[in-house]
Automatic annotation (TrEMBL):
This is M14 family zinc carboxypeptidase. Residues 103-404 form the Peptidase M14 domain. The keyword Zinc applies. Its cofactor is Zn(2+). It comes from Streptomyces niveus (Streptomyces spheroides). The lineage of its organism: Bacteria, Bacillati, Actinomycetota, Actinomycetes, Kitasatosporales. Gene3D superfamilies: Zn peptidases. One of its GO terms (molecular function) is carboxypeptidase activity. Residues 32-44 have a biased composition (Basic and acidic residues). It comes from the Bacteria.
Length: 858
């Protein structure tokens, strides 16, 4: 029996007036948040690959203004049918909203407009799917012909059958004739790529008002689902990232952010067959499908056939707008699969359209609208020119949307049949189809460079009990799989698979299931694609099975003989020993959150020689609360520890992802930079320093340098990471170690060897690199904490040597990836050449940074 899934949050409050025009441009332009990059990776979506500047979360507009609690208006459906209109709360006008300058809809205008659109008839419904990092409601619109509660329930029954019983669904005449095609349009996921939102509002109004027979047929055979703005924080502030400083279109394998989790839930609940993701700015308009390499876990023959056909229709629609290079500065559209050799790939599952393919979408596209209006252009161009460009962009986005709706209407039966076939292959455990011009008719130019497939294993097992380094890591991974709609079973009894025994309570992922693609994306080690293309658009390796701290085993072949039950959540794992002092391994972010909570409560905690925490028996009650809250395990111990742990506030010159990770581990963080240090940063409030970007020792004035020197002389731990950290170490003369930079375009999962001790001892044998570094010529007292594995340490990703033969993985083999020692001033220093906090991917490596920050000298 299928386990019920969570549903989207719906809201209803007071009515609002019609507001179908943006407010006048009354706000002065503001500076965009800086986006930097410490590597030479190519840029996608008109931005940077990895922000190196931390920005605080945007302030909430206020609890009252953003409240999602209210009453349903009279006459609106409460029975699950459509329309299921909800009256959204209105917000105060915000003259600083960056959309206003462009003549586009500011965020505060969206609720009134959506309320008014719902009143235009019986086709438009609005729901709230959650809140952004900055506390703003996320609006989801469904446009479809009215459905009774019974009809809506029948649509859900068919949707569920398509996923759970695809072989029989393929023969179901009712599905063929009456299942409504779900079409999903996602807008404004990068906050300073605005116009998809405005095109969507226009489209909703057109669909609500249209009386022609084709629109009526479209709405009777489709549900058009529109995420109006996926990133309201960024839309308001004019930033690419959300209020946490995170690029949401890099977040779909980890779903660290609430906005990404909301989109993931839309994908699971609505099961789109077709989707668009509106971006900017690439001139001419860029329309997926992409160049190789292609994601090896897709049913790519089905995906390419439909995506290419829809791309041709969108190209024609954009050209039909009549914009030209000579008259308007608008170049003709580009379809990368057809027009480019490499550089715009769909390999990683971190982008919205690529993630959607694993949830049953068979035509999925990034659309890059053409005319740049963000960043320097936003600040420097006249308002009149910006609005001219924004109008063009809105038109182009609208043309792509309308062409896609035409495609969905004209190809309804094929799209649903191909979605069913995607799931059927998974359930049947069939091999993928190799693409060619014969197997994918209508797509010219397919060659061997486009062929990427994988050999799906029979199952994965996440062992219980003693088979785990980290109980919270295993539970987190199981819950993450389930959140991605992967079916997970838990064994009732001990069992044996492929000659290996597993205890009761272990989790099994049977790979003969509809969502095998996303299961494999999450759990598989991945693949080294260094030889396949010269460079990659973004990351090339990401295995959560290797990087999240849990033990995962792969069962390649054979039957699955065990007694189990499907679960909708991991079993609770937190526990506290009944007697004696307590030991808490510090291998996981949740364990750090627990120990930092104890330290904040004044508990006297000590650390062991191998980096664990010793908690006195007098704190057992507090430990019990934290064990329940975080799912961590406190065992009994007689170890007295070697040094006291202290509550640690970290002065951090880091990027937004690292800032987010530090706070996830429970550290208090004070952002610092060269500018803030020169302005008089109060080092007395900090207990440790973490530097990866933005703090240049040689850039400090004399007073700031003296203040930092006094801080370091007090024995505060220093963590320095990447090229920015290496430069800081050299300028401040902390540790005698020479950094060697690998290929700046390299990234992926690597094998590592950990040295027993307080920093890396007992932590996972894999890490993540992004522009890797290693250290040589280690001076007296400098210790190797971790080294790269021998031979070729790259497990999955892309890492080539430079043209002169240097900088490759073989050059890094056996070299020091992490080193530590004591500076001349007496500060414990740890230098990282890996990326242990990168975008939430290597959670199992977070502990290495956490331990280093707590590693004060005895």
């Amino acid at each position: 029996m299928a386990i019920p899934r969570p549903v989207l949050l719906a809201t209803a409050t007071a009515t609002a007036a019609l507001m179908l025009s943006p407010l006048p441009a009354t706000a002065a332009p503001g500076a965009d948040r800086a986006d930097g990059d410490r590597s030479s990776h190519p840029v996608r979506d008109g931005g940077t690959t990895d922000s190196r500047v931390a920005s605080p979360a945007l302030p909430s507009a206020g609890a009252a203004a953003l409240s999602s609690v209210g009453t349903t208006s009279p006459g609106l459906r409460k029975d699950g049918g459509y329309p299921r209109r909800n009256v959204l709360p209105t917000l105060p006008e915000n003259p600083a909203d960056k959309a206003i300058k462009l003549g586009l809809a500011p965020y505060h205008a969206l609720a009134p407009r959506l309320n008014a659109l719902q009143e235009l008839g019986d086709r438009v419904s609005v729901e709230v799917t959650g809140r952004s990092a900055g506390g703003h409601d996320l609006y989801l619109v469904t446009v479809t012909a009215p459905e009774s509660a019974k009809e809506a329930a029948e649509q859900e029954r068919m949707r569920t059958r398509i996923e759970d019983s695809p072989a029989s669904a393929a023969k179901d005449k009712k599905i063929k004739e009456s299942y409504k095609t779900p079409v999903f349009i996602n807008n404004n996921i990068h906050g300073n790529e605005w116009e998809g939102t405005d095109a969507a509002l226009k489209l909703i109004e057109e669909l609500a008002k249209a009386k022609d027979s084709r629109t009526k047929k479209l709405l009777s055979t489709s549900r058009i689902i529109l995420n109006v703005t996926a990133n309201p924080d960024g839309r308001i502030a004019g930033t690419r990232a959300n209020g946490n400083g995170i690029d949401l279109n890099r977040d779909f394998i980890t779903a660290s952010q609430p906005e990404a989790r909301a989109i993931r839930q839309i994908a699971v609940d609505k099961q789109p067959a077709v989707m668009l993701d509106l971006h900017g700015y690439v001139n001419g308009t860029l329309i997926e499908p992409t160049t190789p390499p292609h994601g090896e876990n897709y049913e790519y023959d089905l995906f390419l056939k439909n995506s290419y056909a829809n791309a041709l229709g969108m190209e024609e629609a954009v050209n039909d707008l009549g914009y030209t290079a000579e008259k308007d500065g608008v170049q003709p559209p580009v379809i990368p699969f057809r027009d480019q050799e490499e550089g715009w790939d769909d390999w990683p599952p971190i982008f919205t359209p690529q993630y959607m393919a694993f949830q049953g979408t068979v035509a999925s596209h990034t659309i890059e609208i053409p005319m740049r209006v963000n960043n320097n252009d936003y600040n420097n161009l006249p308002v009149e020119e910006l609005r001219r460009r924004s109008k063009i962009n809105t038109d182009v986005a609208g043309a792509a949307m309308r062409a896609t709706l035409d495609f969905a209407l004209d190809n309804r039966k094929t799209l649903i049949a191909d979605q069913i076939e995607t799931f059927r292959r998974g359930v049947a455990g069939e091999k993928q189809r190799v693409i060619s011009e014969e197997t994918v008719p209508g797509v010219p130019g397919i060659g061997p460079e486009d062929i990427y497939t994988t050999d799906f294993p029979r199952a994965y097992v996440i062992p219980a009990g003693g088979g785990q380094r980290s109980a919270p890591a295993a539970a987190r991974l199981v819950d993450h799989l389930i959140a991605n709609d992967v079916k997970v079973e838990q064994a009732r009894k001990s069992f044996t698979l492929a000659g290996r025994s597993y205890p009761a309570g272990s989790y099994v992922v049977d790979m003969e299931q509809a969502k095998r693609g996303i299961a494999n994306v999450i759990l598989d080690e991945g693949r080294d694609i260094s030889a396949d293309v010269s460079s990659m658009y973004d990351i090339s390796g990401w295995s959560l099975g290797l990087l999240w701290g849990a033990n995962v085993t792969k069962v390649q072949r054979g039957g699955l003989n065990f007694s189990g039950r499907e679960v909708n959540a991991a079993s609770p794992v937190g526990s506290v020993a009944r007697s004696g002092d307590l030991k808490l391994r510090l291998d996981d972010p949740k364990e750090f959150a627990a120990v930092n909570s104890l330290l904040a409560q004044g508990v006297q905690v000590r650390r062991t020689a191998d980096g664990a925490a010793i908690v006195p028996s007098s704190a057992r009650k507090k430990a019990e609360i934290l064990a329940d809250r975080y799912g961590v395990v406190f065992t009994s111990t007689k170890d007295n520890g070697v040094a006291a742990l202290r509550r640690t506030t970290v002065a951090a010159a880091v990027n937004s992802g690292e800032l987010f990770a530090l706070r996830e581990m429970g550290f208090e963080v004070l952002p610092v930079s060269t500018a803030t240090a020169n302005a008089g940063f109060d080092w007395s409030k900090a207990d440790a320093l973490y530097v990866s970007t933005g703090l240049s020792h040689k850039g400090l004035n004399e007073t700031a340098r003296a203040a930092l020197g006094a801080f370091l002389a007090g024995g505060a731990p220093v963590v320095a990471l990447g090229s920015g950290g290496a430069a800081f170490n050299a300028e401040a003369a902390l540790l005698d170690a020479t950094p060697v930079r690998g290929n700046g375009n390299a990234n992926g999962v690597v094998r590592v060897l950990n040295t027993p001790g307080p920093v890396t001892g007992g932590t996972q044998p894999h890490s993540f690199v992004y522009s890797p570094i290693w250290y040589t010529a280690l001076g007296k007292g400098v210790r190797t904490e971790q080294s790269y594995g021998g031979g070729n340490p790259l497990v999955s990703g892309h890492w080539r040597a430079n043209e002169d033969g240097t900088g490759g993985p073989q050059n890094a083999a056996g070299q020091a990836a992490i080193v530590s020692g004591t500076s001349a001033a007496g500060a414990p220093v740890t230098l990282f050449g890996t990326e242990p906090l990168f975008r939430d991917h290597p959670k199992g490596s977070f502990a290495q940074v956490g331990r280093a920050l707590l590693n004060r000298l005895p």
